[in-house]
Amino acid sequence: MTNEQYLYVSYFAAVAVGGGLAVATAAILAGPNRRATAGAVARRLGAILRRVFPAWLILAVLLGFMSVSYLDCAHTDYADVVADRAHLVSSTQEHLSRMAMYLAVALVVYGFVLMLFLWARARQSCKNSILDR
Amino acid sequence: MSMLIAWIVMAIIAVGLAVTITYLIRKPMRRMLGANSYIAPAQGFYVRTFTLAASLVALATIAGRSMPCPDQRKSMKAMEYVWWVMDGWEPLFWGIALFLIGYVVLLTIVFAVLGRYHD
Q1: ipTM value of the model?
Q2: Does residue B66 surpass a pLDDT of 90?
Q3: Burial category of A46 from C-beta neighbours within 10 Å (exposed 0-12, middle 13-18, buried 19 and up)
């Protein structure tokens, strides 16, 4: 495989792996996310969160992918990049590493947003129970 | 071939570390998140997110580990592979440690905000 072929294959394979990872993560967490955001109180907000969740994960992975550049001080143009196989390999590794890291951070940030949702729901249901009395 | 073995050893160590930490934390986390009916529905989400995110951080750390150049690899001795694996431990532990503290902060906020409500 030539370096240029390797660049094409590794670039698109990395995007596919990252996208697959995000979709798999969203699928694994879909059930618990549904259970956490279900209920009569704050129903619409829960529905928004459920729809936003997979998109948020996919965007985080793409952001991680795009945060890596093939160009640097030692590789200033396309010819330099393609000529250096070791640089292509390390860039692919960097892509995978950043995508996984951004996905992990996105999960923790979503956990924080979910906490705000649960808080809003708890306040709402407390208010409702006071009004019912 | 030896480089592949070294990389697999590192991957096993990284995932093993993430699984061990998850195993140790899982039970108390479940108990804490079952404190009242306001947090309980999110119990499954937070526990599963912890497992996934810990594994992702571990894999991210080892995926980003630079490999020796092919010329260098030809002359590498067995001990140099061991050094390469051991050198990877520092960023791995750093990554896991930072993730752990970040998640503990998140859980503390969750409990501080929602734990005061009573059923």
Answers
A1: 0.88
A2: no
A3: buried
